[in-house]
Structure prediction request, 281 residues.
Amino acid sequence: MTRNEAFAHLSGVRDELEAAKFATERLLRATAAGADDLLHATYPVKPSHVRTCAANLEATYILRLFSGFEMILRNYLAVARGGRRRRTRMEIVIDRVAVACNMPSGILVDAHAVREHRNTIVHDLASARELTFGDCKSKLGTFLSFLPVRW
Amino acid sequence: MQVPDNQTTVRRDEWLQLLHHLLKQIEDWSIAQGWSVQRQSKQVHDGDLGEYTAPVLIIRGPGGALYVTPIGLNIIGAKGRVDLEAWPTLNRVKLLRRDDQWHIVTDSNVPIRAPWNAETFVQLVGDLHA
Prediction:
């Protein structure tokens, strides 16, 4: 895998989020203006479903972002260990990659903040408000920038 | 393949001229800061303007890299768009051409109400890398 591929994954999730925001906002505006687009849905979708979807988009895509980040780090560690994959907890995976790539402690702390935020989203979505998608993307991107160009 | 008519060719040439002017401006501001600037090019598929080669800038400063990438002239709500994307944060803003001026707009479509000049650009680069 290359570092560029890792970044393409993160930016791909960001672009999907932007597309989803654009689509939901447009649909909500059209529905508010009297358009009957929702009637054409194969599943009964109400405007309230779309509003909830729009409100939770960032949290949903933070999960996608983090799962991509996890896949990248596990791939890196597996290659570094000669192809062995383990079911190590993500907290430890982040620590090991940070040590292997000589990262400053602040970068490691930021990555753990995103991991904890991701856990909050999974277990208690309503209280997950401390980081935005942009914050998470920026912190995880900075962490990934310390990986080698190719592994 | 669709052959562009004269009017389309004129619009495309004017757009490319605008792009060259903008990128030269950004290049000069970056060099004044002591940042290195690399020029590349990309193919743009731009609706009725067809396909053309546009310049791209990669600027390397203390916070990381900044990619200045033309997106196209045919944009909903604007007459041209150029993206500024920071690496490694992947933070991005759009420059949208409206009323013959460049306007800075965030990914969430919030306009940044600051004039497009060297001071704003340098501050923006810092913010994109934060």
Notes: Residues 3-144 of chain A form one domain. The two ends of chain A are 6 Å apart (CA to CA). Chain A touches chain B through 13 residues (CB under 8 Å).
